[in-house]
Amino acid sequence: MSKLVEPRIPTGFMELLPQDQILFNRMYDTIRRVYERFGFLPLDTTTIELSEVLLAKAGGETEKQIYRFTKGDHDLALRFDLTVPLARYVSQHQQELVFPFKRYQMSKVFRGERPQKGRFREFYQCDIDIIGQDELSLFYDAEMPVVIYHVFKELDLAAFTIRLNNRKVLGGFFKGIGLEDKTTDVLRIIDKLEKIGRENVTAELLDDGISEENIDKIFRLVSIKGSNDEILEQLKGLGIEDETFKEGVSELDQVVSNMRLLGMPEENFEIDLTIARGLDYYTGTVYETRLNDYPQFGSVCSGGRYENLTGFYSKTKMPGIGISIGLTRMFSQLKEAGLLKADTKTLVKALVVPMSSDQMKEALQTASVLRQAQIPTDVYYQQKGMKQKMKYASRLGIPYVVLIGEDEAKQGKVAVKDMTESTQTVVTALEAARLIAGKK
Amino acid sequence: MSKLVEPRIPTGFMELLPQDQILFNRMYDTIRRVYERFGFLPLDTTTIELSEVLLAKAGGETEKQIYRFTKGDHDLALRFDLTVPLARYVSQHQQELVFPFKRYQMSKVFRGERPQKGRFREFYQCDIDIIGQDELSLFYDAEMPVVIYHVFKELDLAAFTIRLNNRKVLGGFFKGIGLEDKTTDVLRIIDKLEKIGRENVTAELLDDGISEENIDKIFRLVSIKGSNDEILEQLKGLGIEDETFKEGVSELDQVVSNMRLLGMPEENFEIDLTIARGLDYYTGTVYETRLNDYPQFGSVCSGGRYENLTGFYSKTKMPGIGISIGLTRMFSQLKEAGLLKADTKTLVKALVVPMSSDQMKEALQTASVLRQAQIPTDVYYQQKGMKQKMKYASRLGIPYVVLIGEDEAKQGKVAVKDMTESTQTVVTALEAARLIAGKK
User: Which of A74, B187, B209, B430 has the fewest Cβ atoms within 10 angstroms?
Assistant: First the structure.
């Protein structure tokens, strides 16, 4: 035998034990179900892309993080998000798709960044996007957070708030105070307000050559607080005449009204004028989502509207709006905060246990009956002592053990042991199926 | 604007349009559901592994096909199957898992081989494996094909046959005729019988130094035909005294009996003594699955028993048995053979259409009612003519359009248009939900 290799995975990667994988999959399935209910179509783009195509737009940090390699003559790379592949896909299949094109994709993406707590190099993103041709109704800006509201409601994790803003409000405001050229810089700095605090933001803005007077105005804007309607009122009352600013306020106003019409409760969303989203390509509505009691998680679901998704691949202007749940990261944070409790180590509802190999025939037939009734069923095939067999069931947390001894076999019956209540009932296999299926 | 990059994916990769993705996901979900019903636990290992760990065992062809790259100090590789990651995982988490450990994994694997028709460089494998510590009951050998029987039954694709054999039958037989040292070579050649025919196999065996007398005996073995019981009888009657051979025949006999007890119909399985499976590590039962009317597809689901899964990572002997559906390849073959017909381009059941923007409020409220009833619902938000709106519904094949005009809005009603029957009913939103949910 050759020398043993230590079994391990690279650092910065998440891999789960089965009991956690069950919880993870439940969350994944819930998100998918809600996405489908809102009319999004499934997509599963390739994990590996041509570097030339994938990196058409990228640069800077993104490009450094990418897993890139050659194979034969091909310069390849792993996708680092699901948005660039979507842009490539809709450009490639423009003629075959129906627009507005609504798709979801829930897949792993890869970023070889320096691993930090809660950051992974391979992680699931759960994205929805809607892509229009030439134009895309503002109503979609209201639908996105409503989808996310239902996702988080059904995930049933913790209280949450979807925050929204509009880049035109900020952009127009900066234009109005003569800082148009600095908009991107200033937005990037403001975006850090929650993380680094007002003092540090002020320092960075001064460094960037912003006058104290303008910094004051900026803080007056981002300090506007109150109910959603109060915020909208205050924005309108600022007396800023810039057209972009007015358009942004009007859009924000309409989005809020439409969200209400779509049934979004007031307690689950708020306008937050400090949200800019670091990414350059957002041009209108932007979103973040926080768990109220866990601000340290940061935003667990973010997105926004972009004027032209496919500029690098197609001449058709395709505006879009998208939002993304960082599932791997959120799962890891929730687990660490003790918010995820594995209630089971298995999906199995019934373990069929023959007392000895003489009852194997009856055991196999009973398993078939239970499975036919759609009950996830396992059979203990190993020839071990009774103690061992019961230990297998209790270690996995299987709720029902279906015992078959000599007596039961003779009577054509089975003994159903309820592992939580420690009761035992002797019934036929069919009755056992009904009994187990009845209690979930 | 910079020069456009042509949107495309590398050759040898599969990517689907939404209508096909819906079909693909349905198959994926069916396989997963059956796997779970048989008590397999979900696993999702990392896509990227450390090369040193992943390639502990590999060599030759596999190593050439691998996507391998460095990032920082790390020598990394993409998994090329789900079995090696499983071996690594069970060795790594031995103390935390309950054995026998039953897991399923349905994930993409990556092989940079020369692309051929029906072969992909990135494809889904849908694996189940059961891993024991030190020992693993022979009953699992019967359970595996029964799981696969239920999968293919529920996929409802075409008639299929699961073929099985036992490596000990072949191995013992070769030992019996003095060809023990050549077993692997001869098995590899025999494995090609169906593909290249008897004449070419004979030539290869002669080339390999096998005597004509032994070739004759080999063909006598692999020509044994008949019902499963007849084949077993003939094997027992061959008069071969080798112990391994006898063990193999006895195992095959027991597996067949147990498969019957587990409810496997005779028409869906057959002993096939020509099946050897190319891989060196199978040591007992081996499986292949064919679609009866599409032999050119080759095996769509294969696997077998191996004596020691984890030899490279752990001193504990862990025998296992596994089987795998090559979903991407099978999907592509089925599609090409015209066996997959997209019955829908969308999962959406209802499209809410306001006649003008005046009815947007009612449209949004109606959509909420339908979604609350779990009906996948879309709203046509774009301000277009009626013709455009109906075209969107018909191009996607949405079965119900829920129209809201001035009159309907006034009455607090909606007009439900059944797109297949071209009928129209004016009802409340709640009644519309009941109507649409009632007909699937």
Answer: B209
